[in-house]
Amino acid sequence: MTRFAILGPPGSGKSVQARRLAEWLEVPVVSTGALLRKIDDPGVQEAMARGALVDTRVVSQVIARELSKSETASGFVLDGSPRTLREARMVERNWPLDLFIHLDVSQSTSIRRLSGRQGGRRDDSPDVVFRRVVDYPAMIAEVLYYYQCLGKLCCVPAEGTPDEVFEFVKKTATGMRCCARPMRARL
Questions:
Q1: Is there a domain that residue 34 lies in?
Q2: Mean pLDDT across the stretch 140-157?
């Protein structure tokens, strides 16, 4: 069984890397963002348009529903979650991860990548992009610390091309490379 999560700041390439890792491992990718965009709930859509976190209860329900499916029994790659300590604890209680991969990328690279992204998503407006990128480190700190304490955190440099980053991701996933750096956060 293979259970991974890939997270990183907006514009880090987490969806691309999650999709590639899932294909490489031959397991499904579970993209929280894509699932939330399909929910017909004005509150969820409004939160996403502002670049805010969707309520943890909603995200936990979406994750639980997807990970309970038979398709994920042999493994999965979570794309974009868990983002809160509550979500992380729920995942670990029910579907313990083998590895939590964090894509490290600078704020300037995140903003540059998102500014050039095609597709016109509502959460890609310049103001929302800036807020999501600036707020990310504080938002994710306790989740990174939690996974570091569990010995499951691996940080991957994500400034390069998608192919270069994927080489790091593959090495990390196969246990060849892991560079968890210390995090400071209170649980």
A1: yes
A2: 93
Q: Rounded to two decimals, what is the model's pTM?
A: 0.84
Asked if residue 10 lies in contact with residue 48, where contact means CB atoms within 8 angstroms, the answer is no
In a domain, 184, yes or no: no
| Residue 154, domain member (yes or no) | yes
Polymer length in residues for the chain: 187
Q: Quote the pLDDT of residue 177.
A: 55
CATH number of the structural domain spanning residue 18: 3.40.50.300
Amino acid code (one letter) for 29: V
CA atoms within 13 A on the CB side of 185: 19
Q: What confidence tens digit (pLDDT) does each residue in 109-118 have?
A: 888 888 766 5
User: How far apart are alpha carbons 5 and 87 in whole angstroms?
Assistant: 12
> Can you give the residue range of the structural domain that contains 56?
2-173
Cα separation, 160 vs 182, in Å, equals 22
